[in-house]
Amino acid sequence: MSRRTARAFSALTLVTAASVLTACGDDSAANPPGLADQKDTATSSAAGAGADVPTVSNPLDVTSLASDPCAALSSAQLTQFGLGDGETQSNAGHAGKACRWKRTEESLDSVDFTVVTENTDGLASVYASKDGSAYFEPTEIAGYPAVYTGLTDSRDSGTCDLWVGVSDQQVVYIMTNLVSAESAEASCGLAADVAEAAITTLGG
Per the record, where are the segments of Low complexity compositional bias (predicted)? Predict the structure, then answer.
């Protein structure tokens, strides 16, 4: 078990109907939940949340991943996590693209990665939605502030959602859905490991 897995065990999920679609093998990527649906609320309350929002001391440029999210993980990293080649997919209602990696072509186990391009408030938008979340647990991934947060808790079903602040303006969103494992330890641990690998790819 990795260090991130141990940290991630106490995490949460931000699960919406998109998560269910992912488990059923839907062709569209899971929409990063919360930010777009609560954009006006998050924007108006971001200032109030500002005092609690951690800043990013070493911002990363994720411009390239916004258009090519599958470049977030190298071939060696995919092998490490037991994932196949990624497939770029659209996010309905969102500007950015997502990448989905699967264990195998037949497997329902998957990892989605998205740069949330429509969000320019970074983790402030995530923190602004805190009161409406069932779980909200800040953490740190490779020195970058992150949050496991969700409207419902589906960790025991193998689904976990993680938001990582890569700059004070932008976040990346990772959703793991491990149908075969169905445990928070496995799914949230993989989300943290994938996030750290992506940060390494970006030079963080």
Answer: 41-52
For residue 150, give the nearest of 126, 120, 122, 119 by alpha carbon.
126
Residue 80: phi and psi, rounded to 5, are -60, -40
Query: What domain count does the chain have?
Result: 1
For residue 125, give its domain range.
Answer: 3-201
Tens of pLDDT, residue by residue over 39-82, are: 444 444 444 455 589 999 999 999 999 989 999 999 999 999 99
Distance separating alpha carbons of residues 76 and 98, to the nearest angstrom:
20
